[in-house]
Sequence to fold (550 residues):
Amino acid sequence: MSVRAEALRVPRRRARSRPRRGRGVAPAVAGALATAYLSLVVLLPLAAVVAASTSGGAAAFWQAISGPQAFAALRFTVLVSLAVVVVNVVTGTLIAWVLVRDEFPGKALVNALVDLPFALPTIVAGLVLLALYGPNGPAPVDIGFTRAGVALALLFVTLPFVVRSVQPVLMELDREMEEAATSLGARPRTVFVRVVLPNLVPAIAAGAGLAFARALGEFGSVVLISGNIPFKTEVASVFIFGQIESDNRAAAAAVSVALLALSFGLLLFVSAIATRGRRRAG
Amino acid sequence: MPASSRASRLTLRAVALGYLAALLAIPVAMVFYRTFEHGVGSAIAAVTTPAAQHAFWMTLTMVAIAVPLNTIFGIATALALVRGRWRGRTVVAALVDLPFAVSPIVVGLALVLVYGNTGWIGGWLADNGVRVIFSTPGMVLATIFVSLPFVVHEVVPVLREIGVEQEDAARTLGASRAQAFWRVTLPAIRWGVAYGVILTTARALGEFGAIAVVSGRIEGRTETMTLFVEQRFQSFDLSGAYAASVVLALLALAVIGSMTLLDRRKED
Fold:
């Protein structure tokens, strides 16, 4: 019996009693710290928004979000986000496909470029789109103060979500199934729709959910382009901003809560997909 | 390869690249062109005005405070979520992603409602001489809020992947808890941490909406780079807005470059 074996024996006995209590107190202390930090920065302020939204009672809350301007802003936000997500589902899957299955010079550069909307400040995103497609830009269109312009800004900032969600799944996909389908006479389109696509659906849905949540709350990229015309190009976040500026905090809080409920619901949907995916993989 | 499949492959490639060019590459290139079309000198002059310099330092201040705090919090939370078995773990796991689902404007409003002069604890803070809203602390809080989940997000999967065998081995061989963390766990998760730090930095540099609400946008006092861009644009100083945008875009490109390098490292 060496000294080393002696050293091994003591912790082993302790290890046996450990599983029931987790891994000691350290993670629990870290957990308490994490909870405190999260509460002070995130939860307490969000609770204040919920409280402010109902400070005038349920009727006042309902009145605030169903007022014509607030309702128009919320409706436009949801509809334009939905349209943007539909486009993203198609283009995002396409870009992921090209990045995984195609080979061409400069592919690594294109792959890196996809992350640009995550790294570029949103106000800059709005400005670059105006520089090209705005009133003084060289392109033969003018997106300034239009709904199409708002949609374009949202397409810019949400671009990476579906691509980055689908790409890893496509990479891991076993190509034997596709080869089998092809050898049995299936045409490329049939192979994609019947064999590849079903495997991608959870990843596409997860990416789409994240993009939707992002589009609902987007502010920076939209604010310069939309011109904030009520009933036309005003999105919910811009409406809330206007209410804060004119010191109408209860209305701002009410629309915020509506927005929060929508995007939090989407986030739950995405995490449900992820959990199901992990369970299936495990 | 049959001709038709080759043609369809080229079509798909052209559509994907064309979309990326029209949406991302050409607009960004356009801002670079507009910035430098009257020479480098005028661009440099536009971003070295006192207001621009101050905005740049404000942005760096936000990053210098928010990123370290969120990194420490992120690692602690990830460890607690993956290794711990404490009560409330699943709740925290669900709530940690919350900042991703909150509009920046709502973040700003939320902070004003708590830390503003008429807010939940803002009045008490003001009585004790602490000004949060329309001042740097509020802007830091906003930055922390919006960039909070990134490190947790990157570190949790890595911690799951590496398991506990090595840590247990180190502890078995007599390492203290701290030694096991610094010498075994941290080196194992370092690429995940680095990736999270880069994403946190990018988000902190670029935050606009939340800061617009809590800062009060006082030029030369509470104006960050992103607010400076908007303020130049609204005062019809397009060349100033473009030049400041280019500075931010270069920072964004640096972020992407380091992410690409990290990806390569991780694969090695």
